[in-house]
Write a structure and sequence with these properties.
four-stranded antiparallel β-sheet; 3 domains; three-stranded antiparallel β-sheet; single chain; Ribosomal Protein S8, Chain: A, domain 1; RNA binding; 25% strand
Amino acid sequence: MIASTGRAFFTSRIDRLSRLLSVSYVPSYAVRTFQGTISQANLRSLTTMNVGKGGSHQTAQKKKQRAFNQVWKPISTEAATSEEKLEVDGSVSLQPSRADMSKEELVSKSSVTDEKCSITMQVDTPLLRFVKGEGGSVQKQIEEELKVRIIFPSSKEENSLVIEGNKVENMTKASERIKQVLEEAVNSRMLDYSHFISLPLALHPDLLKKLIKFQSTILGEIAVDDSGGTDHSGDELESQSVSQMEVVEEKDQVRVKIAERGAASGSKSRILSDLGIDKSIFIKPKTFHLTVLMLKLWNKDRVATASDVLQRISSKVMDALENRPISIHLKGLTCMKGSPAKARVVYAPVYEVGEEGRLVRACEVIRDAFVKSGLVVGKDAQQSLKLHATLMNARHRKNKKKRWNDSFDARQIFDEYGSEEWGEYPIQEIHLSQRFKFDESGYYHCCSSIALPDPTLTI
């Protein structure tokens, strides 16, 4: 009995001692911040990495690091808050250390592979071509210098650019290089403007007629009938050789004389070609407008932000206009840079009727708001306001490789139209317009607009 009691007491002491010696290990090193799921095997490797000492531990640690595949995506420049945690297998949470937060927070999806690592970057579709470069030159240079592989999305609907490599350091450098390439592209002429703030003028029929006559006279595209009248072939003003037919009756015979004017037309075409003038450099009358600000909005988020900015400043624009209608006077011609002999852009100068400065103040409200929003990139933010109504632009030339120094000889045009009275017209709306896309009216597609005081209403 006593012996049995002694054995029980001794066994109990052994169990208690065993429980006291069996403690959980908590790693002392800082844990990097991740979002994603880590398997139990990975969790065990994290919590046992520092248990052993000596060479065997270091070898195991290096092996685990090589097998860790990270896909990183920069999403924010703000540090994580102390409340942010990472769930591991839905049951364990690790607190991120602020000391480990870099300037950009990186989202990491983790998996175990043989030694390959990858980084995923979100690059908008219109910008992907700059990462590739002409003939793949930019992509090739980055890949060769940093020993990585750049994988582009398989479809236009996707915007995930993947960088693969064996070293996280090289992949990070590659992502920084790509960011630099994109920043240079959006701030340069390489990325063209997609939208602009416009004051539509094409809604005035009398002005459209003057524009059609202006283009027809210069291009020689006037079809003359027997009565001496003229027939404009619509807003498109299609270029073609015109034949005049004279019908003469003599006795019972009908002689048809076709006076070909193709030779004369061809001669004029050659002259215009020598001057660098063709139909494509003229603006379409149905798109005639005043330009307030040019914008590069390469994704839907930027377009939505621009629309929101325009709506939010509506009351400030009205205040600048003193809640009164505004009209402009167009007269003469002017070159934007260059001279009439080597013109790039020819436009009609804009004068505010009454010369109170209300229109300029309203446009400055618009420009300042868009600059403050960050939607105006590069040197455009420092450009001074210059209201203009473009009539001809060499950059619109078709069937030719675009050249930034392309020009045309407009001296004869200035001789004839240099003092042209285009007329006075009210400004009724302000549009966020999309280039290269048109509404049913023929004017640029309107993404957002605000109405100005109606000139037909008495105050």
